[in-house]
């Protein structure tokens, strides 16, 4: 067989009016599997099953006895059109599709060309078979006869007619900037042969974060008999590329996959904060959103917002709260709200009865007597050593008074000593004075208020969006 230079270009055929779509496959010259390619960077790749695989070291390259002068130098733009597969970090077995020939200077015949398939070398019988298979002469590697014999021999290959490759086309894609929880791609195909119309599809999604290609997501083609792929949005912000190629019943695949690049715009806290809400409550004052953290790291919520996706609204979540609200001595104390794995923030949509945002404490249940708060009622119990010296009637009244409720001083049977004790110990103000120095006085829960008078979310389908101080999405909850 005589070495020839073959140039393959894909002819894109579209039936007029068949597809009203702005998306199509690239019309660039795609090399066949087995070809070595290189862009402007130092990395050398071997093409295998339509993926470019980085040959990690010179030792691996030499271990295959690859020829340096067979590397095809291409533009970075064209290099990016090949999805990135797993790295090749050893020379134990040749990549699928590799083309090898015994070097006549190293005891080979210099004639027979083999295609590596399923770990075996398969002789391509004629030059016409080589051309019909759509292979590239520049990908043929001349290796020693000894190296050639390490590849088990398989059946020879023949191909009577040129391969006709199907075509995949994207018909629906997400927005160029993605913020949602999922993305959906829809595609269709055109069969290259009238007798092979039953196409399947293979997809691949690749991360290109901070100019580093091939981070996570897919490591190989993902098969699909359907014409769509829905995937969860990756947690890391950055650029991603979706590829799709068609495959006919004989396994012939599209050489140039259709593709679509999109950017994921997400907060560093995406998937690190849990959100629950009662946005369908009957009144605005009953609507609330609860934020809890999944990480042990301290997270400042300063500048964060919540809002409606449908109405495109944003409301700033209060980030400062009173430590001890409505107290004559401590009401000026306040602190910045910080979210971590141990605490939670409840954002009330309506107006706050105290007029301030606040942190819960061990005594705050007393305020339920005067305000429609419905905060937890687990105040410290009365000191039994102190009340045992009070009258029997007083002790009974105190024991029958619900927790976090002040004793009804208007009861006629209560003596002055009992009334004085209740006023000095069993009130919100005195509870705070007595207990505020204890380590467990403060609870890990903040109540904040947006002070709105109308619904934030649409009555029908809508999504609650939480954004950080840079307007990046932290969480989305759909209703």
Q: Can you give a write-up of this model?
A:
- Helices cover 11% and strands 30% of the residues.
- The protein is mostly beta strands.
- The protein has three domains: 36-153, no CATH class; 167-264, Immunoglobulins (Immunoglobulin-like, Sandwich), CATH 2.60.40; 274-478, no CATH class.
- The strands form eight sheets. Strands 11, 13, 14, 15, 17 and 18 form a six-stranded mixed sheet that branches. Strands 8-5-6-7-9 form a five-stranded mixed sheet. It has a five-stranded mixed sheet with strand order 19-20-27-29-28, with no helix packed on it.
- The radius of gyration is 35 Å and the shape is elongated.
SSE layout and pairings?
Layout: E1 36-38, E2 44-48, E3 51-54, H1 58-63, E4 72-73, H2 76-79, E5 99-102, E6 113-117, E7 120-123, H3 127-132, E8 140-143, H4 145-149, E9 152-153, E10 167-172, E11 177-178, E12 182-190, E13 200-209, E14 212-213, E15 222-224, E16 228-232, E17 238-247, E18 258-264, E19 273-277, E20 288-293, E21 299-300, E22 305-308, E23 315-316, E24 320-322, E25 334-336, E26 338-339, E27 344-348, E28 358-361, H5 384-387, H6 392-400, H7 416-425, H8 428-435, E29 442-449, E30 463-467, E31 473-478
């Amino acid at each position: 067989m005589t070495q020839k230079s073959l140039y393959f270009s894909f002819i894109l055929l579209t039936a007029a009016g068949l597809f009203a779509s702005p998306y199509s496959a690239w019309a660039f010259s795609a090399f066949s599997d087995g070809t070595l390619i290189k862009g402007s960077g130092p990395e050398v790749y071997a093409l295998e099953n339509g993926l470019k695989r980085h040959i990690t070291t010179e030792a691996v390259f030499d271990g295959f006895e690859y020829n340096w002068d067979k590397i095809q130098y291409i533009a970075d733009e064209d290099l990016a059109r090949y999805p990135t597969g797993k790295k090749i970090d050893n020379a134990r077995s040749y990549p699928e599709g590799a083309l090898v020939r015994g070097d006549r200077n190293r005891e080979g015949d210099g004639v027979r060309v083999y295609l590596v398939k399923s770990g075996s070398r398969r002789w391509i019988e004629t030059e016409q078979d080589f051309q019909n298979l759509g292979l590239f002469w520049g990908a043929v590697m001349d290796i020693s006869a000894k190296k050639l014999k390490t590849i088990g021999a398989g059946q020879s290959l023949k191909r009577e007619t040129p391969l006709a490759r199907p075509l995949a086309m994207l018909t629906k894609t997400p927005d160029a900037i993605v913020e949602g929880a999922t993305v959906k791609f829809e595609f269709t195909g055109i069969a290259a042969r009238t007798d092979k119309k039953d196409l399947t599809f293979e997809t691949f999604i690749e991360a290109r974060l901070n100019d580093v290609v091939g981070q996570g997501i897919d490591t190989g083609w993902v098969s699909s008999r359907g014409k769509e792929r829905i995937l969860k949005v990756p947690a890391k912000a950055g650029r991603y590329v979706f590829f799709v190629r068609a495959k006919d019943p004989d396994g012939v695949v599209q050489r140039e996959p259709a593709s679509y690049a999109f950017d994921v715009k997400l907060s560093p806290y995406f998937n690190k904060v849990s959100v629950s809400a009662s946005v369908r409550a009957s009144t605005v004052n009953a609507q609330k959103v609860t934020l809890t953290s999944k990480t042990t790291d301290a997270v400042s919520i300063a500048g964060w917002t919540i809002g409606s996706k449908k109405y495109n609204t944003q409301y700033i979540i209060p980030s400062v709260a009173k430590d001890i609200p409505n107290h004559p001595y401590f009401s000026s104390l306040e602190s910045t709200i910080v979210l971590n794995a141990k605490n939670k923030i409840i954002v009330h949509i309506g107006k706050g009865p105290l007029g301030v945002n606040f942190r819960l404490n061990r005594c705050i249940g007393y305020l339920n007597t005067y305000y429609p708060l419905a905060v937890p009622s687990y105040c410290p119990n009365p000191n039994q050593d102190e009340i045992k010296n009070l009258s029997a009637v007083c002790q009974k009244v105190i024991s029958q008074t619900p927790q976090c409720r002040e004793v009804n001083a208007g009861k006629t049977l209560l003596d002055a000593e009992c009334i004085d004790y209740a006023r000095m110990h069993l009130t919100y103000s005195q509870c705070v004075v007595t207990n505020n120095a204890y380590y467990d006085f403060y609870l890990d829960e903040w109540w904040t208020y947006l002070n709105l008078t109308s619904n934030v979310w649409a009555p029908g389908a809508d999504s609650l969006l939480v954004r950080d101080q840079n307007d990046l999405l932290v969480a989305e909850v759909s209703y």
